[in-house]
Amino acid sequence: MRYAQLLAFALAAIQWVKADDDTPAHGEEESEEMGPVAFMWPEDREWSASDDNTAPCGSSEEPGERTQFPLTRGALALVIQDDSWNVDVSIAYQNDPSENSDFETLITTRIAELDPGHACYSVPDPPRDVIDGTNATIQLRYTSDFDTDTNETFYACADITYVSSARFDTEIPCFNVTSDNFTASDDDEDEEDAAGSLRSNTGTVGLVAGFVALGSWLLL
Ligand SMILES: *[C@@H]1O[C@H](CO)[C@@H](O)[C@H](O)[C@H]1NC(C)=O
Ligand SMILES: *[C@@H]1O[C@H](CO)[C@@H](O)[C@H](O)[C@H]1NC(C)=O
Ligand SMILES: *[C@@H]1O[C@H](CO)[C@@H](O)[C@H](O)[C@H]1NC(C)=O
Ligand SMILES: *[C@@H]1O[C@H](CO)[C@@H](O)[C@H](O)[C@H]1NC(C)=O
């Protein structure tokens, strides 16, 4: 599991809380080890900046380690470090899908927007012919203006093997926390004018709420 990403997000949040007036606005301190959106669970393929706009998986790697994924009541836990839009979640019931046309829609309602933080979405159960041991790849395809002034299409994939719910014993790290939970206000004027103590007090409250959310599954 991507504890490193969680940690990166938590550290970024602490940076926001501690931010001095000359510190860049949130969203500008980005991890250089992931794209704007990554899978936290199931585990995603190795990320690289040079490949993340390449269909279908944003990676030059082949399917690697597969995460065991339940045949019923599956979910995706995402970590988001920059605003992203029009997120399509698709799936290929294949060992090594190589193009977008290998994928079919998994979450029928496109996710209009993802804000920095953590988000978790339940996914529909697969068709009946998908059984214990079936391999699949879950794809995220979305728009972001990460690091640039133009919107580009980004890709990320997670390789899975379905297992019967009886054999599935992982606690999916499923929770929503956004960076708004960590900062006093998104309003730039407020941020500039706010007394540091006000901002760090409310920021700390948000931070504690975030860590309670993280802790509730880390301890499970
Ligand atoms: C699933 O993928 C793994 C490698 O990722 C492979 O060893 C295994 O044979 C595949 N299973 C099936 C049913 O094709
Ligand atoms: C990218 O697209 C989103 C959603 O349509 C929009 O809100 C955002 O302003 C766009 N960014 C740029 C740099 O055009
Ligand atoms: C997270 O938020 C999304 C969008 O509002 C929602 O669909 C999803 O069910 C939420 N997940 C949890 C675990 O609350
Ligand atoms: C984060 O903020 C949202 C909306 O502002 C709120 O619904 C949610 O409960 C907060 N989450 C935590 C963990 O504080």
UniProtKB/TrEMBL annotation:
Predominant localisation class: membrane
Annotated Copper acquisition factor BIM1-like domain residues: 34-178
PANTHER family: ANCHORED PROTEIN, PUTATIVE (AFU_ORTHOLOGUE AFUA_6G02800)-RELATED (PTHR34992:SF5), HYPHAL ANASTAMOSIS-7 PROTEIN (PTHR34992)
Location of region: Disordered: 47-67
Organism of this sequence: Lineolata rhizophorae
InterPro entries referenced in this protein's UniProt entry, alphabetically: BIM1-like, BIM1-like_dom
Localization: Cell membrane
Topology class, membrane: Lipid-anchor; GPI-anchor
Signal peptide: 1-19
Recorded GO CC terms: plasma membrane; side of membrane
Keyword Cell membrane: yes
Entry keyword set: Cell membrane, Glycoprotein, GPI-anchor, Lipoprotein, Membrane, Signal
Name of this chain's protein: Copper acquisition factor BIM1-like domain-containing protein
Source lineage: Eukaryota, Fungi, Dikarya, Ascomycota, Pezizomycotina
